[in-house]
Amino acid sequence: MTLLEWVVAILMFLGTVFVLGASLGLLRMPDIFLQMSAATKSATLGVGFLLLAAAVYFQNSSVTSRAIAIILFLFLTVPVAAHRLARAAYFVGVPLAEETHLDELRDYYDLQTPELDASEEANPRKPVN
Questions:
Q1: For residue 117, what is the DSSP state?
Q2: d(CA 30, CA 79)
Q3: Which UniProt key words apply to this protein (predicted)?
Q4: Helical ranges in the chain per DSSP H
Q5: Which residues are CB-contacts of 119 (< 8 A; sequence separation ≥ 6)?
Q6: Cα distance between residue 51 and residue 60, in whole Å
Q7: Distance CA 38, CA 21 (A)
Q8: Residues 87, 111 contacting (CB under 8 angstroms)
Q9: Using N-to-C axis directions, what is the helix angle for 61-92 and 32-58, rounded to 10°?
Q10: What single DSSP character describes residue 98?
Q11: Burial readout 85-109 (b: 16 or more C-beta within 10 A, e: otherwise)
Q12: 48-76 in b/e burial notation, b at 16+ Cβ within 10 A?
C-alpha cells in the first residue's frame, strides 16, 4: 500500500468509528436529548472523515471542492437542526431521562408559548451552594 492509500484507510476508519459511535449512542442513551447529542456529534464527524477520505483518494479539484462544501454545510446545519429538534421535543413534553435530576430550562421557558425569557427580572439567579 502506498502512503496515500494508508491516509485514505485511516480517514475511512476514523469515519466509520464515529458513525458506529453515533449508532451506539442512539441505542444506549436513555432519552431523546442525549440520543440527539451523541448522534449529531458523532455522525457529523464520521461523515466528515469519510468525505475527506474521498477527497484525498480521488485527488480531483471537483471532488475535493464538493467534499469540503458538504463538510462545511454539515458542520453549519446539523447542530442547528439538532438544537431546533431538541427545543421542539422539550416544548411538546418529551420526558427527560430518570437519571436527569436537574431541568435548568424549566424556569426560563413558558411552555404555553414558545418564548424564552432569560431576563434577570423574570428569573433571578439562585445562589450556588
A1: -
A2: 20
A3: Membrane, Transmembrane, Transmembrane helix
A4: 3-28, 32-58, 61-92
A5: none
A6: 13
A7: 8
A8: no
A9: 180
A10: T
A11: ebeeebeeeeebeeeeeeeeeeeeb
A12: bbbbbbbbbbeeeeeebeebeeebeebee
Count of positions (residues) in the chain: 129
In terms of Cα–Cα distance, which of 49, 40, 87 is closest to 70? 49
Antiparallel, parallel or unpaired: β 115-116 and 109-110: antiparallel
| Cell, residue 35 | 440520543
pTM, two decimals, is: 0.78
Q: Which amino acid is at 52?
A: L
Cell of 20: 458506529
81, amino acid identity: A
- Compute, in degrees rounded to 10, the torsion defined by CA atoms 89, 90, 92, 98: 100
Taking each helix axis from N to C end, the angle separating 3-28 and 32-58, rounded to the nearest 10 degrees, works out to 170
